[in-house]
Structure formats: C-alpha cells, structure tokens
Amino acid sequence: MTRAELVARLSAQQHYLSSDDVELVVKTIVDQLTDALARGERIEIRGFGAFSLRTRKSRVARNPRTGESVAVLAKRIPYFRPGKELRERVDFAQ
C-alpha cells in the first residue's frame, strides 16, 4: 500500500474529513515517526509494533563489478518489530 492509497482509504472511511486533511494527518504522523527515529528514539505503537534503530559496524566490502575493496562506514538503520496483535492478525489471514 502506498501513501496515496492509504490516504484514499482513510478518506473513504472518514466522510467528514477532506482528502487534504487526511493527507496532512498522514504526512504529519510519518514526519513525526521519522524525526523521532532520527533523534535515536524508540517508537512503540501498542498492538502494531515498535520501531527502533540498529547499528551496523563499519566493514570492508567488495565492488561486485570490479572486485575492488571498498570501505563501508558504520550506519544506523531502522528496524521494525511487529506487535503480538499484528502478528496474530496477519497469521490468521492465511
């Protein structure tokens, strides 16, 4: 599901909100989640899951085209751990 599809579905369910209002709400939520992760905070949404950061160490990799060694710097990546309710609902959908 894309952001546009999410906005369309929410707009269809919430008749009293305009599509622009729903789009602003979705954008604001995504921006707040992104900002919190950028600050290194953990985000927990009960029943849905938790977002956190994982740190990857620096390493030496190889360029697959040339075989040349390349230094890859350490970096933080977002990690999502689904909550129990989400896992159960997805598993039940099979």
Radius of gyration: 19 Å
Largest sheet: 3 strands, antiparallel
As residue ranges, the low-confidence spans are none
Give the neighbour order of strands across the main sheet: 1-2-5
Estimate nothing, just give the exact number of structural domains: 2
Class of the largest domain, according to the CATH hierarchy?
Few Secondary Structures
Counting DSSP H or I runs of 4 or more residues, the number of helices is 3
Structural class: alpha+beta
CATH superfamily of the largest domain: IHF-like DNA-binding proteins
Task: Describe the overall structure.
The protein has helices at 3-13, 19-38, 84-92; strands at 43-45, 49-56, 59-62, 69-72, 75-82. It is an alpha+beta fold. It has 2 domains: 1-41; 43-94, HU Protein, Chain A, CATH 4.10.520.10. It has a 3-stranded antiparallel β-sheet. It has a two-stranded antiparallel sheet with strand order 3-4. The relative contact order is 0.12.
